[in-house]
Amino acid sequence: MKVEDIRKLFSDAYKVGTENPTVEILGASFEADEAAIFGTPDQNYIDREISWYESNSRNVNDFPGGAPTIWKSVASPAGMINSNYGYLIWSPQNGRQYLRVRQELETNPASRRATMIYTRPSMHYDYYTDGMSDFVCTNAVSYYIRDNLLHAVVQMRSNDAVYGYKNDRAWQLHVMDLLCKDLKISRGTLHWQVQNLHVYSRHYKFIEEYATLHHTPPRKNTKGNKDGK
Description:
- By secondary structure, the chain is an alpha/beta fold.
- The protein is built from eight helices and six strands, in the order H-E-H-H-H-H-E-H-E-E-E-H-E-H.
- 35% of the residues lie in helices and 21% in strands.
- The protein has one domain: 2-Layer Sandwich (Thymidylate Synthase, Chain A).
- The longest helix has 20 residues.
């Protein structure tokens, strides 16, 4: 399954319901072969977010060009969050996971242990500590060398199909490229597995536009789910 197949699934699942509904796909698994499911990537934002991740700072006030609203909304009053992905894979406080994965693949290219774990059991209370509302969306990412290519499998708890996917995909490709450079190997396939892939009601226009373009009017009913990150 590829990104185009996911668009078709959203078109079929489209529904209008109660206050703040979402369209959800549970257990989505596909090849992340396109930069966006819906909408267009904002390269300026992507570059700034990756720069912030590379800083390892957990404070949104260090976000280049100013913190976006979404990050401010989940931060503590002091600006602290959990989800700086660079911090999660590079910092000694979180196990220097990038280094561990690189060493594992250098030592054993056929390994199935090359995994960077983004979340943790304590997230159940870490996410609301000090007034935050930031439950890490990525569970883990595993890397495999097969046929002399580096492949990755991204496993996500929750992923917004409009903004979240394209920004997260850009980050994961960035990490893959860094590993490829270190390992002197070419990039393979990026696999995307999401427990809950969703489109919020404010973005239903993208599903409607896709359905209209492909002459497949979306099915509607009266059920829906409330927004939730």
